[in-house]
Amino acid sequence: MKGKLLDLVLVLGGLVMIAPLVWLVVNALSEPINAFQLPPRWIPNPPTLQNFQQVPGLIPFARMAWNSLQIAVLTTAGALFTSAMAAYAFNRLRFPGRDQIFSVLLAALVVPVQLTVVPIFIMMRWLHLVDTTVAIWLPALVNVFGIFFLRQYISSIPRELDEAAIMDGAGHFWILFRVILPLARPGLTALGIFVFEASWNNFFWPYIFLSTPEKMTLPVGLVSLQGAVGGGPAVVLFAAITLVVLPILILFLIFQRSFIASIATTGLRA
């Protein structure tokens, strides 16, 4: 009885969380006159793609999508590489001040990102990188949460595998890339989804560092689209938001098993 009640609660909770997404897609596929009805419609009648066709005429959607994809891919690849290297060092290597340095890194997680924008902006201006996409993905190559997340995941991998590899003459790089990372693939997948999603939806940094319209990303484009729509139909904006959300949703659906497995096992061992 308790199990069925718990399942019912979880189903209801899932429906509540997915309802706004369904409502977004339904209104994006609806004609302006049929949108925002009360009670809300959950099936567009009749469905139309006219709202999606209007988006490229208001903003350079394809160019902004390419900018967002480029930044997200570079950020994800770089963050995974640096996080894996640092996580291995903090978990497997012993060196003076290891725990103290790791504690300082964890303390950086509680620092609001707004406090770092001024020194990073000065640094990017000194490097002549303001108004370039490099200013967006370069500071994101080091991800403190990624280091902590992978360190906890690597803790669940038996150290006996490292010792066996060392007896065969393997070095740290061989152990990391041939032993640890293949076993940590679920954790890498989950972290990749986290970083990609955060970079894809990032509005603050592109809004601060980018001023040229051709270099702007989709979140900034959505804000400009909201102004472009003005008194026009909001369903066009909903269509653009749907196009931004779909890649992340598809990415999660593809890698959901690895994502759930990594979350379930991370931190089981200290």
Name the features.
MetI-like_sf; cell membrane; mainly alpha; Carbohydrate ABC transporter permease; MetI-like; 270 residues
In short:
This protein is an all-alpha fold and 270 residues long. It has helices at residues 2-28, 50-58, 61-92, 98-108, 117-126, 134-137, 144-154, 160-167, 172-183, 185-200, 204-209, 218-229, 235-254, 256-265.
What does this structure look like?
Keywords: Cell membrane, Membrane, Transmembrane, Transmembrane helix, Transport. It is a multi-pass membrane protein. InterPro entries: MetI-like, MetI-like_sf. The protein is about 70% helix and about 0% strand. It is an all-alpha fold and about 270 residues long. α3 crosses α7 and α7 (about 145-155) runs antiparallel to α10. The model has no long low-confidence stretch (mean pLDDT about 80).
How would the blueprint of this fold be written?
Layout: H1 2-28, H2 50-58, H3 61-92, H4 98-108, H5 117-126, H6 134-137, H7 144-154, H8 160-167, H9 172-183, H10 185-200, H11 204-209, H12 218-229, H13 235-254, H14 256-265
Helix pairs in contact: 1-13, 2-13, 3-7, 3-10, 7-10, 8-9, 10-13, 10-14, 12-13
